[in-house]
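Q: I have two molecules that I believe assemble together. Could you output structure tokens for the complex as a whole instead of separate predictions?
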Amino acid sequence: MKALKIPEATIVRMSVYSRFLEQVDKKGIVTISSGEIAEGVGVSPAQVRKDLAYFGEFGTRGVGYNVKDLLKHTLKILGLSGKWTVVVVGVGNLGSALISYRGFRERGFEIVGVFDNDVTKIGKKIMDLEVMGPEKMEEIIKQHNVKIGIITVPASAAQEAANQLIKAGVKAILNFAPKVLSVPDNVQVRDIDLSTRLEILTFHLCMKNA
Amino acid sequence: MKALKIPEATIVRMSVYSRFLEQVDKKGIVTISSGEIAEGVGVSPAQVRKDLAYFGEFGTRGVGYNVKDLLKHTLKILGLSGKWTVVVVGVGNLGSALISYRGFRERGFEIVGVFDNDVTKIGKKIMDLEVMGPEKMEEIIKQHNVKIGIITVPASAAQEAANQLIKAGVKAILNFAPKVLSVPDNVQVRDIDLSTRLEILTFHLCMKNA
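A: Yes, here they are, computed for all two components at once.
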């Protein structure tokens, strides 16, 4: 598999297909067509087939896909065959929400450390996890072989948080801070800025009425 | 202004600049250069100037930008001069977290209604908002002139939630469900799928080690 040739949009849809297949599997359904997957997630059947084709041959013409097999394949493609340990830096409102968000755990992500430099937060517990100061980051990351860090600190503290994570061995960062992080080439970053997503909507709402 | 010619990435950065300028303004700083904005948010000074140029002439050569003026302009461009009322459909783990997320309120978004079809949730209060059944959606949306809906229901219920929102008058949807929504052309949708963002990272982490 050549990662560079696979469009990010395909990876996004693989994740969506994979979660849809989980639901289908839970219902006890054994086989599924690309049309049924397409309808379930809201894309065209041709798109489903094209996306899956990036990763090899699945399914049988006229019969469709075996749900359990395809689910297993999608999980493997996404790197979700095992568990991933994750740390969260920044235990504000959003950080706390994410720590208690079940959606991550359901997909095999286990939060093993939460950090904040606010002394009034250190020592408190969120979902059985004790908030620790940044000086404990390296120890926890090495101990649990953590490769993924989630940053939910304010913009002004985000680069420093990224630097600390990377120094300790993290190779991938999910960044909720409204700041473009500068990281080495061997570190992956994806940004999720909740307010920005809303403001793209208001921008377009205003354009329409202008 | 012609909305169609402005890249989405520019709108995203305008939102980031705008929040950075808010912080700068709070510190009492009066003028700022494109280089300082660039450093604050982590992009190049040329990018800052190019983005701002889409919206007209700001700042004075050699002096920089007046912080309050530029902040006001960015807010106006993003459609954030006034308040926006918002409803949330789906009061699960993520929905509850978003309702209590202060970041939205700070940018002028006021959540005026929260809905769920789970009868065990209806009537409960989250942040002073009573959870209501979907049959109240239209009334609340019309009463508060709501144009923006946030969907945090499971994938299987997302399209129905979108249909209800649109029928009641919502023109823009922020969708957290892993489902591609089908909406009329005059409705804007933006997706945020938290698990997918993490799974793009694990995909790349696995590719590197493959």
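A: One point stands out. Chain A touches chain B through 70 residues (CB under 8 Å).
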